[in-house]
Specification:
It is elongated and about 50 Å long. It has a two-stranded antiparallel sheet with strand order 1-2. 68% of the residues lie in helices and 5% in strands. It is built from six helices and two strands.
Length: 137
């Protein structure tokens, strides 16, 4: 149970490369959206939420490597807030069903961010139980 937050950090990294938006004939990953946002910055366009999403990979790997409550909370809360921002922006600009446009990668990222926050609190409670000697022998 102490590795739930760590696994969720890795899932955030993997989901960044999965489809975030699914159109009729194309799927766009978070990585592709980030690259497009960097390109559009020079032209003064592009979705603003794509820039903060570029940190998802770094935060996911760093929190999985460090594996402490503060790292998992920082990563989980940051990713959760950006994903909520993305979902709100997508809901406002979609034609047709919102659930048809949002890809599997974004849903996995949302669930993994929530799991990372919950896992951070579970990590603390397990380490507190071990430090007080409450472990079963």
């Amino acid at each position: 149970m102490k590795n739930i937050a760590r696994v969720c950090g890795v899932l955030i990294v993997i989901a960044y490369f999965l489809p975030w938006m699914s159109m009729v004939f194309a799927s766009i990953s978070g990585f592709t959206m980030g690259k497009m946002a960097i390109t559009k910055i020079g032209e003064g366009g592009g979705p603003l939420w794509a820039l903060p999403s570029l940190l998802f990979v770094v935060l996911g790997i760093a929190s999985a490597a460090v594996n402490n409550k503060r790292g998992h909370l920082a990563s989980g809360v940051y990713v959760l807030l950006v994903v909520i921002w993305i979902l709100v922006e997508m809901a406002g600009g979609t034609r047709g069903s919102f659930f048809e446009v949002v890809g599997i990668g974004l849903w996995i990222t949302l669930v993994a961010a929530i799991g990372q926050i919950v896992g951070a609190f579970m990590l603390e409670s397990e380490s507190a139980g071990e430090s007080t000697g409450e472990a079963e022998e």
